[in-house]
Amino acid sequence: MQASGSADSDAGAYVEGDNALAAGEAANAIGNGATALGGGATAVAARASAVDFDALASGEDSIALGSGAQATALGASVTGTNAHASGAYSTASGAEAAASATQAVASGFRASASADGASALGSYSDASGRLGTAVGYGAIASGGATTALGFGAAAAGSGAIAIGQSSDASGAESVAIGGSTFFGLIPSRASGTGASALGAGAWATEDYSTAIGWNAWGNATDATALGANASADAVNSVALGAGSKAERANSVAIGAAGSERQLTHVAACSELTDAVNKGQLDAVAATANAVGRYVQANGAGSAAAAGSEALAAGSGASAGGARSYALGANASATQAGATAVGADSAAKGSNATALGSQAATTASNGVAIGYNAIANSGANSMALGANAGATGANSVELGAGTRALEANVVFVGGGNGSDGPATRRIINVGDGRIAAGSSDAVTGSQLNTTNQRVGAVETRVGDVDRRIGSVETTAANAIVYDDASRERLSLAGLQGTVLDNVGNGSIGADSRQAINGAQLFRSLSDAASFLGGGASVGLQGVFVAPNYVIQGSSYSNVGDALGALDRKVSDLDQRVSGADAAPRARMAAASSLAAQSEPVLDTADARASVQGTPVPASMAAPQAISSPAANAAINALSVGDGAVASGVSSTAIGQGAMATASNAVALGQGSVADRANSVSVGSTGNERQVTNVAAGTQVIDAVNKGQLDRGLATANSYTDTRFQTMADSFDVFKGDVDRRLDRQGAMGAAMLNMATSAAGIRTQNRVGVGVGFQGGESALSLGYQRALSDRATVTLGGAFSSDDSSIGVGAGFGW
């Protein structure tokens, strides 16, 4: 045996382990039964074999055969230059083939099997799906349990199968079999779940679609296209035959527009959904045209029976409701159970009936019989007769031109004189029952008998009335007590009875005597004198009210006058206690003999009036302008009809305004202020804008939209500036981190190359140098190893890159 080394190295082979073999410059066989044959060959595991220049077998029972071949996992096998097998029990065969997963197989130049149990056979084939199989140049099996056979075939969906040049099965459990058409531009493709495409250029693009034939297309869910250039474009459609096109859902096409086909040898149908043959059709046509039939119809329009079990007969007749019937030109029955008979008749209510030309009913259970008879919206209404009309529920109209608008009535007239008479007689009526609770109609004969009996009663009543008159005349001038208790005596004068010559009665707390007019006049005169203000007693004892003038306003009763004084004093008290130099608003109310009074609100330069009932103004009670203030809060003010100020010191101004919280203000009709110390100009869902707001100057001032927009713009500008500054800082930080990572990577590469460069040297002292590069950064590594004996070493090494550095110390022992 002979072996030669290179001129640049005199490193020898190194063996460590029982039954190990190393042959070649810098060959290393470390491990029991390890074999390293070739310059730089390395076998570093039990029973590992590395054969050829720089071959590496680092997994137990692994085999690496070929220059640069690497078998790095348990039981891995590699054959070929630079081939790699890194998965347990994986196999790589061919230059640069790679089997990187458990039990993966890659065979061919640059073939790749990267998933467990995957197989890639052929140059550039790729099996990346678990248990996938790719066979052929450039074949790809990327989905789990997929199969791709043929040049450029691709199976991506789980369980998919692609067979043929450039065939593509990308849908789960799809099948694409066939080559490509138009110079390889259109391959066989199955892209939907469960789709099947068989034939060159066949496409099945939607779930569970099927395309069989050259350039056949299944382009909808559950669609099936069979034949060259056949196309099924609608859901659940079927296209049978070359060039057939199925464009409607749930249809079968055996041709295309302009290229129709006959369907021959069709057996006679036996079920409702079976196809009929021409023999059956001819038999039906013969029956329809048979002589001696007595049903005929003509007209340009087509009858339509869209409802279930419906019947439509006549030009333009329409039966749209279930079990509806439309008979006659343009007859229409639109609701369930409706019946329309006659030209232009219409039954539009459920179970409605319209009989006659232009008869119509929209009522549920309605009936219209006769020309232009109408039974409108009243349920169960009935119109019988030409131009009869019924609107009321449960009403009945009998006779031409009758009109009934009320419910639960029977009309026999109501016409306008042209459509029908205003009244009709009902004749041949049987005698009705005359008894309590009877609702029978009575006849003229029965009514005549009643009239005769009533006349006899009237005669007897007249006799009694005359006798009573005689008694009343006799007793007219008598005065009697009202009843036997003698506690009440009523005088009978129609305009009252004057008691004259009444003496002066006693006036005292216990007196029960009558008093006369003179006594009453003196008492009223004394009261008028006491009130003053021009009060007096006029003719017939009429009391003339006083007239008090306070600050230019007149008051006709003491209460109003005192109220005015109270308000003036309160207003003056507020002015003095507040030391307010500005003019104060004051509230005044004036009585009036009109139906409404008019409170007036005076200020120094403005005047406002509100219609309503005045309420005295007071600082200790609420003020209401529009209605009396009942149960209101202290110091509250309400202005407007229905305005309520129920919160302490609250204010409600406007019709229906409500201020329910303490110190709240509600401004405007319907405004609601229900939070303490708040001002409301609207309510939920009825908000108002506050306009012409000056820019705020104090911290607690309101701001307008202009200030808000400027503030928002300033905030956005500040935020944008800060964010940009942060982004710039982050970019700098990220750049520093990236560069440091690159330096660390370069240092790692330098350390690796330093260590491996000295690995094959079998001397007592070793020095290794390595250089690494990553992302524009570089690093230098320097290491020293001292062999203390054949079984012990000490190592010192470090790596340096710009401001970063790392140092390591290690020791190795073997036995």
From TrEMBL:
Coiled coil: none annotated. Residues 262-293, 425-459, 689-726 form the Trimeric autotransporter adhesin YadA-like stalk domain. Keywords: Cell outer membrane, Membrane, Protein transport, Signal, Transmembrane, Transmembrane beta strand, Transport. Residues 57-83, 99-125, 127-153, 155-179, 190-216, 232-256, 319-345, 347-373, 377-396, 634-657, 659-683 form the Trimeric autotransporter adhesin YadA-like head domain. Residues 765-815 form the Trimeric autotransporter adhesin YadA-like C-terminal membrane anchor domain. The keyword Signal applies. SUPFAM superfamilies: Adhesin YadA, collagen-binding domain, Pili subunits. It comes from the Bacteria. Its main location: membrane. One of its GO terms (biological process) is protein transport. Belongs to the autotransporter-2 (AT-2) (TC 1.B.40) family. This is Autotransporter adhesin EhaG. The gene is ehaG_2.
